[in-house]
Amino acid sequence: MATVATQTAVAVPRPTYRPIIHNAVPKDSSMDAIFDPAKHLAFMPPSEVIQMKDIGYPEETGVSPVAVSQPFQLFSHDAVQRMRSEIFKPEIMENCSYRSNIAACQLRGYSPKYASFTYDAWNHPKTLAVISEIAGVDLVPQMNFEIGHINLSVKTEQQTQEELAAIAKQKRAFADDEGISGCPWEDDKPVVGWHTDSYPFVCVLMLSDCTNMVGGETALMTATGKVLKVRGPQMGCAVILQGRYITHQALRALGAQERITSVTSFRPRSPFVRDDTVLTTVRPISDLSELYYEFGEYRLEMLEARISANLKRLRARRRAGKKFETRTFKRFLTEQEEFLKHTNNEVVEDDKVIVGYVEEVKVPDQRVGISNDPPEGLE
Predict the structure, then answer these.
(1) Is pTM beyond 0.90 here?
(2) Are 128 and 254 in contact (CB under 8 A)?
(3) With 70 as the cut, is the pLDDT of residue 354 above it?
(4) Omega prior to 374 cis, within 30 of 0
(5) Interval 362-376: pLDDT, tens
(6) Domain range summary for the chain, segments of one domain joined by +
(7) 29-274+361-369, what's its fold?
(8) Is the four-CA dihedral 77, 79, 81, 83 of positive or negative sign?
């Protein structure tokens, strides 16, 4: 990443558009209710979970053999409305708005300070059990700062109607030529460009009504260079993706006045599982003090647990009169040296961070190869 000197990454001014909040729950005493999994979880298993090997990657590529799930129902309508009500608080729009070269408007770092319901929803053991079961590994939220990251895309009513009219017109043309020219109403322009995530897993939750939406899929780059599209979720539904290890992008949605997605990042709970977290995509769009504090805290906690476990083992062998394992101990020390070096490399000095610039992965135009068909061998 480039190291041009600039100011510390800070929240940008509140977006100039007015968010659509007519579906938000009215602000009353009931909004103070805590997250109740019996009422707010509406889990229905995904129809399919695509494995890393299904898209050409070795299973050991990431921290789990799971690549991505098909959309599945996760939260109830009431839970979604409570989350919407929280993100549209004026203090969040004022203090937690960011933008970058690959995303026009994002809300970050608002939980738990401004959004206790959202925080509780993603930290509840039953929610984590669902996420972990689908991901194939026991997961916890990456950091508080990354709970409920919001991507916002809002259009005027006129723009939406024009898109719907254009889609209808092109669908008729498509039918007239029997599909020879392809699917002209599909728009493969991204709302978030090609990238790999900073964190192992993400859960993308839809917070908008997608009734009239066309597009909005997540495009995945397979190991063979082909592009696979996973359909976008409906309101209250989610998709789980091992995004640290798969290049992907969010395609633009047409025909909907708003598209609001909540992205919560996860990492393995065990401190003994490798952690390849980088801050490349989030450093330029974060309060660096908060980001670095939480990153440093959990990384040092991992190191503490590893050292404690190794010390316990070392002492136990000594009490048992066993010979010191020189090679094993040196290998452990080397691994922790690499762990510390990686941690240090990710904490870039504030004045070397380019605010709002996220390096985009350069991928050749793949539109001809984009398909809704599964990869070979995936039925």
Answers:
(1) no
(2) no
(3) yes
(4) no
(5) 655 543 333 334 333
(6) 29-274+361-369
(7) Jelly Rolls (2.60.120)
(8) negative
